[in-house]
């Protein structure tokens, strides 16, 4: 009798060491008891929720029920936990859940999820997951849009649960994954903007792009972007978004704000502002009276009083401008502009690190554009200088391609870049005789190796021009530090002819 009384515990011990499960026959053989006795006790244990059963073919496989101490689960987790019975009525909630939902346990217990009307878990998506729950736990991500703006994301685990009395239920575990989602979203955002800035055509309006990108990530946006002229020490409004804000400002001040100038010479770089490019680097939050009573700075002060004085109050009230998040477009101690995001007194700018990172990307893109523009202007000046020079000259890349020849070169030889795209083409046309061509190429290479970089290596060759004439040319090639060759050409045909005539006369005089 004692053996029969202890049989349930012996069955549980046997199952504990066989996590994959055992049949009734397996248990009976291991314990040395009858199948009927094992079957009776397994049925009782199943009703009590201590064992689970699953069918494999005609056989039933029994295993220990996976049970978690609910008290520990509720107290020692940061997640929100709601326990439901088989009718989806709330039977337990943990402290974190009460704090997050701002509802007490007494208010919630006994209500269904629909009756409780809770954020997140009372949504149709969450209820559909719970109603479809069977043996295995289910995990899903849920989104909740707050009334005050912004989204929260939760990962909900719905876990089948068996209570002490054998009744079935469900445990909901909600983990706040808002920061994880936000991080992933921000990384995707920054990866996308980085590629867009790299691929942006030179003629595209990068300031308008900055403003439009800010509008896409900031709720209820009021954004403006300034460019900065360092020489004149002036800011220019280059973009204002969305269009409703720009049109509203235009209506109030009487003209389009885009294109307006903000002179800051002697203002920003002295007291009381004492600004510099480095101080503009980090995002700052500027508060304005009267929304913030302890602030002395007014919206008019921030605008340097460039708008009509009677318009600032209207602008602030219509667009609810209580503060501005201001960030400089700064890279390597150079200021390219400013970005302002206007907000109301209760609004908070979310994802500030992502926005600052995007503005750093934009600053680098502006610096690259400025460098490219300076390079284009420098190349244009060089071309103008060389092209207007009376001295024939050419620029030859290190791979032998002709990068540039000036007008004097074409006037002297008749050839253009179309005729001589490479050094091979030049030698073929200028030295049509193969033997002379080989001599010229050998001399050119020998002089180059002997002289080295940045040292001229003059040599005279007889050259065939496009019209078939032969000219004696003094070449003065110089190899630059990057391997590029800069060559000037001087026509010494007449000098050689005169020199030859002089030698002939001298020889004649000697014969006499």
TrEMBL record:
Transmembrane segments: none annotated. It comes from the Archaea. It holds the Pfam family PAS_4. Residues 378-420 form the PAS domain. PANTHER family: BIOFILM ARCHITECTURE MAINTENANCE PROTEIN MBAA, DIGUANYLATE CYCLASE DGCP. This is Cyclic-di-GMP phosphodiesterase. It comes from Methanoculleus chikugoensis.
């Amino acid at each position: 009798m004692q053996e029969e009384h202890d049989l349930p515990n012996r069955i549980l011990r046997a199952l504990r060491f066989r996590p994959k499960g055992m049949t009734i026959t397996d248990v009976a053989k291991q314990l040395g008891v009858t199948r009927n006795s094992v079957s009776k006790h397994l049925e009782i244990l199943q009703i009590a929720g201590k064992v689970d059963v699953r069918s494999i073919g005609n056989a039933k496989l029994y295993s220990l029920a996976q049970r978690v101490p609910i008290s520990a689960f509720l107290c020692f987790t940061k997640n929100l936990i709601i326990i439901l019975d088989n009718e989806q009525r709330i039977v337990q909630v943990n402290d974190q859940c009460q704090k997050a939902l701002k509802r007490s346990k007494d208010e919630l217990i006994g209500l269904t999820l629909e009756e409780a009307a809770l954020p997140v878990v009372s949504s149709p998506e969450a209820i559909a997951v719970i109603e479809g729950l069977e043996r295995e736990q289910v995990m899903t991500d849920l989104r909740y849009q707050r009334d005050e703006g912004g989204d929260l994301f939760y990962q909900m685990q719905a876990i089948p649960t068996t209570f002490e009395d054998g009744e079935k239920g469900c445990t909901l575990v909600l983990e706040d994954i808002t920061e994880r989602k936000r991080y992933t979203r921000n990384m995707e955002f920054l990866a996308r903007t980085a590629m867009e800035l790299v691929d942006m055509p030179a003629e595209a309006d990068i300031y308008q792009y900055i403003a439009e990108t800010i509008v896409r990530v900031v709720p209820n946006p009021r954004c403006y972007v300034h460019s900065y002229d360092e020489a004149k020490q002036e800011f220019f409004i280059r973009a204002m978004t969305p269009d409703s804000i720009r049109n509203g400002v235009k209506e109030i001040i009487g003209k389009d704000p885009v294109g307006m100038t903000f002179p800051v010479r002697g203002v920003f770089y002295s007291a009381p502002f004492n600004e510099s490019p480095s101080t503009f680097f980090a995002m700052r939050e500027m508060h304005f009276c009267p929304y913030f009573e302890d602030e002395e700075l007014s919206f008019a002060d921030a605008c340097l009083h460039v708008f009509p004085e009677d318009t600032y109050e209207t602008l602030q009230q219509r667009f609810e401008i209580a503060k501005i998040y201001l960030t400089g477009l700064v890279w390597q101690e150079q200021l390219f502009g400013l970005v302002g995001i206007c907000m109301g007194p209760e609004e908070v700018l979310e994802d500030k690190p992502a926005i600052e990172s995007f503005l750093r990307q934009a600053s680098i893109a502006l610096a690259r554009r400025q460098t490219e523009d300076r390079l284009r202007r420098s190349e244009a000046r060089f071309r103008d200088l060389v092209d207007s020079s009376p001295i024939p000259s050419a620029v030859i890349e290190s791979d032998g391609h002709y990068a540039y020849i000036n007008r004097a070169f074409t006037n002297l030889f008749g050839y253009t870049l179309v005729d001589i795209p490479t050094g091979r083409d030049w030698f073929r046309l200028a030295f049509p005789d193969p033997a002379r061509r080989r001599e010229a190429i050998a001399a050119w290479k020998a002089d180059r190796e002997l002289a080295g970089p940045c040292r001229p290596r003059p040599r005279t060759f007889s050259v065939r021009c496009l019209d078939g004439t032969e000219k004696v040319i003094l070449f003065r090639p110089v190899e630059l530090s990057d391997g590029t060759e800069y060559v000037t050409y001087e026509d010494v045909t007449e000098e050689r002819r005169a020199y030859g005539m002089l030698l002939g006369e001298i020889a004649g005089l000697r014969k006499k």
